[in-house]
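Record format v2
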Amino acid sequence: MSQTVTTREPATRPARRRTGRPWALIVAVCLVFGFLYAPIVWLALVSFNDSRTVSRFTGFSTHWYAELVQDERVIAALGLTLRIALSSAVVCTIVGTLAAFGLRRTFRGRGLWTVVLTLPLVVPEVVMGVSLLAFFVKLAGIPLGFWALLAAHVAFSLSFVVVVVRSRLAGMDTRLQEAAADLGAGPLTAFRTVTLPLVAPAIAAGSAFAFLLSFDDVVISSYLTGVGSTTLPVFVYGQASKRGVSPEIVALSTAMVGVSALLLLIGVAVVTWRARRVGRRVDLTVAG
Amino acid sequence: MARRRVPRWLAANLLLLPAGFWLAVFLLVPLALVVEYSFATRDTGPLRVVLPWTTRAYRTALDPAFLPIFGRTLTYAGLTALACLLLGFPLAWFIARHAGRFRTALLAAVLVPFWASYLARIYAWKALLDGEGLVNRLLGLVGLDRDGGFLLTDGAVILGLTYGFLPFMVLPLYVACERFDYRLVEASYDLGHGRVSTFFRVVLPGVWPGVLAGSLLVLVPAAGDFVTPKLLGGVDQSTFGSVIDDQFRGGNNWPLGSAMAVLLLLLVVVVLMLRGRRGEDVL
């Protein structure tokens, strides 16, 4: 291979290597970011449109939002969504953090536990949804609604808390606990004063993600909402698939994206701020 | 260390017990139930009626009548992975090599849409691709508009899937690009290779684990998704995910839906085995 290429004239190569900024690449990156964000920006703009039709922009107005606030179905759905997301986040945080600590050191059976705990990340949502529907309706006899939704949301969010907390624990210097022990701290004191402050950002991030996952879920929830108890995404999905495009749903979608993005940014800010304070960077890619 | 009275394995198992219990009851048992249902005869009653056991649901699912749906699902998933790769590679390469201190910010910018309401974002595309939508009217300016818009087309579904799952591709690709030793590119240039040749012979093999991991991460949710084909497509765009959904949602045929769910799970298992241990660290 190298014999054939040495015959080519190498004179032009160094010049090509020094070409300052990769403009073609920058343009491509801008286009991709445009593709990612343009629909969201468009959604937000249209939600403030005065007109009934979303295709013509006639003027600025907030009356679609005002209508949402007055819509009893939306308020009820929002209430249920928030109650489930909060409860799910609390349960996931406690159960998931315990599990992450359990996986900290090696023991027989750790591999199997790891597989079980990452299973929810790989099972397709539709499969999880229909299996839970079958479970609640045919086997457990639990009526669909709040409790069924909560059980399901914890089941699919738990792994995220485990992954986030576990990666933080793995990156932690165990000598810190040993130092604490050497300085006379009992196991509980060492945990409270050394370990917990170090993992707290990861626990906070994990619960934020659990909340978000629950708040945004549509596929699994769509099988488990009972009569008169619909979550917000399921309500939007029902409206979106039944009818065409309506400004109310555009406003509702914008609000949902806004809340999710805000929560995510708060979560990321908390993690990076805390992480910087303790002098360590948390790998953001874990979140995906 | 004498203070540790509880053996390590017992302590670990106790800590893991609540999570294990939850996942056993609300994940493993339901999945087992679906496997059981997939061997059931048609179930119509309000309670569990599964006997007698039969493989009829699988024979129906693998019937030639369903072949177009298999083919379409795999085509959608494959084209989605390809589109994600084409869009995601420049992004990942740029963030890994040129972003400098904006690296974290740009990665977060890729992640924000991913975490912000998938449904709402697909809904935005539904409105954009509608006959009266912005895309059609913009294309109308150059005479490329289409009567009735672009909803209910294969392109719309692939676009929606690509949009929805792009971050799945970008993250593993980013990890691979970051690990890639750029000196190899310089060495390739020094040895007289051009840009194209360097890309295909040096860069692509170098980041291949990321390409593979990203593609598989996109393939699985794209094959199982039903929100996008239902919102952006029509009857002719039904996929594996949307057919499973139909069988359960309408109460049409649970055993058939279960059999297809099991087949989808098998696809995931195959994908995970293909991925092996190699790609695990990029998740």
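Residues 105 and 171 of chain B are 14 Å apart (CA to CA).
Chain B touches chain A through 97 residues (CB under 8 Å).
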